[in-house]
């Protein structure tokens, strides 16, 4: 069984989760696959600090999502 990869998403609208770069293009460097949940959570913390620092949307929900290979359509860069 393959290990999952982790991506970071931001909530946009009522029920829509999008890649972090779709929320703000400045965050496109974080729009990648992370090998470990710990690495993804560290990046999420950096994103939350960025959003707060620049008053872009410190109340915006940001999540780390595990994807299995069957969820390949949601992977960044596809």
Layout of SSEs?
Elements: E1 5-11, E2 17-19, H1 20-23, H2 37-53, E3 62-67
Antiparallel strand pairs: 1-2, 1-3
Structure notes:
With 78 residues, the protein is an alpha+beta fold. It has 2 helices and 3 strands; from the N terminus they run ββααβ. It has helices spanning 20-23, 37-53, and strands spanning 5-11, 17-19, 62-67. Strand 1 (5-11) and strand 2 (17-19) form a beta hairpin. The radius of gyration is 12 Å and the shape is globular. The model has no long low-confidence stretch (mean pLDDT 84).
Question: What attributes characterize this protein structure?
Answer:
about 80 residues; alpha+beta; three-stranded antiparallel beta sheet; 3 strands; about 25% helix
As a percent range, the share of strand residues is 15-25%
Largest sheet geometry:
3 strands, antiparallel
Structural class: alpha+beta
**Shape type:** globular
- Total helical elements: 2
**Uncertain ranges:** none
């Amino acid at each position: 069984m393959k290990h999952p990869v982790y991506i970071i998403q931001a909530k946009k609208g009522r029920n829509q989760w999008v890649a972090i770069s779709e929320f703000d293009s400045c965050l496109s460097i974080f729009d990648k696959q992370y090998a470990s949940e710990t690495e993804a959570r560290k990046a999420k913390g950096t994103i939350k600090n960025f959003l707060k620092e620049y008053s872009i949307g410190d109340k915006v929900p940001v999540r780390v999502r595990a994807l299995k290979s069957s969820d390949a359509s949601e992977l960044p860069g596809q």
